[in-house]
TrEMBL record, chains A, B:
Subcellular location: Cytoplasm
Cellular compartments per GO CC: cytoplasm
Record protein name field: Phosphoribosylformylglycinamidine synthase subunit PurS
InterPro entries: PurS, PurS-like_sf
SUPFAM superfamilies from the UniProt entry: PurS-like
Entry keywords, A to Z: ATP-binding, Cytoplasm, Ligase, Nucleotide-binding, Purine biosynthesis
Subunit structure of this chain's protein: Part of the FGAM synthase complex composed of 1 PurL, 1 PurQ and 2 PurS subunits.
Coiled coil regions in record: none
Any one GO MF annotation of this record: ATP binding
Native organism: Mesobacillus selenatarsenatis (strain DSM 18680 / JCM 14380 / FERM P-15431 / SF-1)
Length: 84, 84
């Protein structure tokens, strides 16, 4: 079994209005010194052993469905989980 | 300057309909062997040096605003960035 952690973030050049809203909201709550907030997605996929090439499969899933490569970057970590 | 990475995930006991939708969508796209998908949030905060106790500040921000402790778990990593 594989546990895959996928991180999807907006590219640096893309504006992040959601992050700006959170930043302003934190300031309203009295938190100072926050320069920037950027918001992304975090996904945990559990794959079973039938998946042959996990790395290639996850890469393709990211490109095709999980991220929008035009405005988003992604990275992932694959972790093999041994059933107990 | 500090770079803080915050990961917010739904608690194990909470249903994740968004994750199920992505899982079904991946299956529709022909990806087999996916047992579960769970979706969370990933946030990158940039804090400046004026923040005294970064760890405590981030914990409080998570509890009060960034996560909903009733249904979500969070974890974070603080990284000190040296300006060049």
């Amino acid at each position: 079994m594989y546990k895959v952690k996928v991180y999807v973030t907006l590219r640096e050049s893309v504006l992040d209005p959601q992050g700006t809203a959170v930043k302003n909201s934190l300031a309203t709550h009295g938190y100072e010194g926050i320069q920037e907030v950027r918001i992304g997605k975090y996904m945990e996929l559990t794959l079973d052993e039938s998946v042959k090439d996990v790395d290639a499969a996850v890469k393709e899933m990211c490109e095709r469905l999980l991220a929008n490569p035009v405005i988003e970057d992604y990275r992932y970590e694959v972790e093999e989980v041994v059933a107990q």
